[in-house]
Each structure stands twice: as structure tokens, then as C-alpha cells.
Amino acid sequence: MYGSEYAAVYDAVMKSRARDYAGMAHHISGLIDEALPQARTLLDVGAGTGIHARHWVDGFDVTMADASAEMLDYAHEQVPEASTAVFTAPAVPDTLGVFDAVVCLFMIPHLSDEDAEEFFRAISPHISSGGLLIIEPWYSADNHIDHYVGFDTLRTDEWAVARLSHSVRRDQVVEVTVHHAKAQPESGIAAHTETARLHLRPLEWYGQALERAGFTGSFVEPNEALELGLWVGTKP
Ligand SMILES: C[S@@+](CC[C@H](N)C(=O)[O-])C[C@H]1O[C@@H](n2cnc3c(N)ncnc32)[C@H](O)[C@@H]1O
User: Fold this and answer.
1) Does the CB atom of residue 74 touch ligand 1 within 6 A?
2) Residue nearest atom 14 of ligand 1, based on CA coordinates
3) How many whole angstroms from 186 Cα to the centroid of ligand 1?
4) Cβ of 228 less than 6 Å from ligand 1
5) Burial level of 228, CB count in 10 A (0-12/13-18/19+)?
6) Quick check: CB of 110 below 6 Å from ligand 1?
7) Is the CB–ligand 1 distance for residue 14 below 6 Å?
8) Is 232 in contact with 132 (CB distance < 8 Å)?
9) Per residue of the chain (236 residues), what is the pLDDT tens digit?
10) Can you tell me which atom of ligand 1 is nearest the CA of 104?
11) Distances 160 to 6, 181, 182 between C-alpha atoms, Å
12) Taking the mean position of all CA atoms in its chain, how far away is CA 178?
């Protein structure tokens, strides 16, 4: 889903929504500073277009990681100060290095329960002692809206886009189909349709899985900046 034709559209559509990315990034910086005042290095896994990372580069040495090289290319254009690493969780390259904080925002829902747990274990050696694994949870079967239809339109100086999404629940997995049509003056209209599979799980699951992977888990309640709250795993 996250190919080159989608990166600029994802970035523009997400920024056009009411979500406070700067507020969320600043809240997370505050959590890291409070837990580990000497924290210097931050890895953003599933960084996408760098929509959060651009707010962290003033305070941390940031590495943006993603399974999609195309998303990372776009992210690197937006946030040239950050390093990049292409890998697909749950696999983690041995050469990744060690970070004071690892952040996964709207990324873990892409993984099955087994893969998410495997990822928590695989990333653990890459987190410094006392460092944090910060996870944004996603919906559970109780608060997810089935058959949801999303609709965005927007225009920049170079192109106009209409984006539609439809989600349907199959047991604990939500299949989200996204269609977007992008119109440009020279090349005309191009359309793409793709489906992502996102995993519903109870909120407590994240804390239990972090504990099983050797972290101490705590939950940060939702607030104005954090729509779904955050799970924070502290590495012993
Ligand atoms: C919904 S976007 C979230 C981007 C950004 N973190 C945000 O909150 O807006 C999910 C991102 O995770 C990446 N991703 C999905 N599965 C992944 C995996 N198994 N390993 C690494 N990245 C993955 C996708 O390529 C995409 O860029």
C-alpha cells in the first residue's frame, strides 16, 4: 500500500486532518526526557513520511525506519537531518544499533499478534538500559467502527487528490481498502486501490505482550494530543 505514488498523498491527507502531530511528538519527547533525561537517540519504526520525526530532530539523533523504501525516500526529503533504515518488522537487522527510545506510531496494527510479540523481543537488544519502547495502540473489537467510509479531498499547487477508504472487519482483522485518484496538469489522472490488514486487539494486550518481552509496561491515558493513548515499555 505504501508505494511511491502514495507517500506525498498520505503526508498531505494526514496533515490536512485535525490530528495534532506536533503535539503528539512533543508529548512523546516529554515522556522520554522525564524517563531518561540523558536520552539522545530515537528510532521511529514505521516512520512513514516522517510526519512525527520532523518534530524530533531538534532534540534527538533520529533514525526513521520503514518497510517501504518509497515512504522513507519521501521522509528523507522532508527530514534530511534524520538517518533512515529499511527493514520489515518483526525482522530487525543486527547492524541497527542501540537507541534510547524506539517509537512505533500506527505501525503495530499492521502486524499479527505473533509478529508484534516477536518484534518486541527482536528490538529489545537495540534499546539501551532504562530506554523506552513506545507503542501507539489501535482499536479493539469493542470500539472499532465496522464498514467505516472515509473521504478526503485536497488540492496543492501541483496536484489534486480524492481519497476514499472502506473498512470491513473479518474476525480480529480489519481490511482497509484505500482508493485514491490524483490529478496533475501534465500527466492527467492516475488512480490506485490497495488493501491493508490491520489487527484489532484489547488494550491490555499491548502491556501484557511488552511484559512477556521483558519490558515493564505502563499506559499513558489518551489526551488532546494522544487520541488512543500510548503504551510505554521500559527496558530494565
Ligand atoms: C499508517 S502508516 C503510519 C506512519 C506514521 N508512523 C504515522 O503515524 O502517521 C504505517 C507505516 O508503517 C509501515 N509499515 C507497515 N508494516 C511494517 C512492518 N512490518 N515493518 C516496518 N514498517 C512497516 C508502512 O510502510 C507505513 O509507512
Assistant:
1) no
2) 46
3) 31
4) no
5) middle
6) yes
7) yes
8) yes
9) 677 678 888 888 888 887 899 999 999 999 999 999 999 999 999 999 999 999 999 999 999 999 999 999 999 999 999 999 999 999 999 999 999 999 999 999 999 999 999 999 999 999 999 999 999 999 998 998 999 999 999 999 999 999 999 999 999 999 999 999 999 999 999 999 999 999 999 999 999 999 999 999 999 999 999 999 999 999 99
10) 6
11) 13, 8, 6
12) 17
- Atom 1 (ligand 1): residue with closest C-alpha? 106
Question: Phi then psi for 144, rounded to 5 degrees?
Answer: -85, 140
For residue 194, report the distance from its CA to the centre of ligand 1, in Å.
Answer: 15
Q: Cell triple for residue 89?
A: 518488522
Rounded Cα gap, residues 229 and 135, in angstroms: 9
The pLDDT of residue 98 is 98
* Residue 209, burial from CB neighbour count under 10 angstroms (0-12, 13-18, 19+): buried
Provide the pLDDT for residue 9.
Answer: 83
Per DSSP, helices labelled H in the chain are 4-16, 21-35, 69-78, 113-123, 203-212
Substitution candidate for ligand 1 out of 43, 87, 107, 117 with most atoms within 8 A of CB: 107
Any idea which residue has 486487539 for its cell? 201
